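Q: I'm writing up a methods section and want to include an example of the input and output format. Could you take the sequence below and give the corresponding predicted structure tokens, formatted cleanly so I can copy it straight into the document?
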Amino acid sequence: MPMMDTPLLRVRALCKDFPYRGFWGQSIRVLDGISMEVHSGEIRAIVGESGSGKTTLARCCLRLIEPSGGTVEFDGQDLALLNPGALRAKRREFQMVFQDPFASLNPAMTVEEILREPLQIHNIGTREFQDRRIRELMNDVSLNESLIKRRPAQLSGGQQQRVGIARGLALRPRLLVADEPVSALDVSVQAQILNLLANLKKRYGLTLILISHSLYAVHYLCTTISVMYQGRIIEEAPAATFFKGPRHPYSRILLDAMPVLDLTKPNPTGTLKTADAPVLRVRQGCAFHPRCPQAFAICRDRVPLPAEINPGERVACFLYG
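A: Here is the clean output for your methods example:
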């Protein structure tokens, strides 16, 4: 699907602060001025290690939590300006698949009840229409209809995640955000779920945001890569360009860490400085500088701003300043 000039999702200077436990009146900045555009038909990967702010970014974008600053526009409409009723109606257009499939499903409900619930909440169709839609969803995610009366505890992890994906698709959204959809699954099941998402993207004409800590999980699926580190996007590039050679030192280390089957590939060229790695977030300078193998003196004092290297390719690093 060709991309449109107007982005489906536009994020500008997004910030999120959380109270810092143990220090009265103090807060920690989890998102620090995130700006991003996601176009219709795009498959955007947001990658980074645990604690980089990926899930918080996703939840702020869908207004599941309120940002501390900045704006989020969906199809040109600022979500912060919508009243509760308008926001509820708008939620039909963007949905989320959560990381832990079992924790995100109501253990007291059957698969049928879980898939019917969003249709009932939004008053969509008659009972007969909902029955057809449930069967259609089961088929779309390759779940046998014999499972329809089972509860989440009676399903495997892969089946639970398929139910979560089907629930996210029930309202035919335009944007689906999948937060670490395979991290809780066996390796043998991960590829099946990723292939399923790719097929559903084509079938439903979805725009997909895939959050992951692993570049390996998004390698063959995504069209654009955004790399996060300590609450900032430090690199953004088309997937084909990124996997040929990322620009930021942190991105190169992530790519070197990908498992490969080619035993002739040379050893990783970069390593993290773990001895002086910060426990808390860096408050001054580049967030990555204590661990960076190529840090300059300026990196300790100033935050590098994203610079456009090529069309669609941005990097926040003084190597390119």
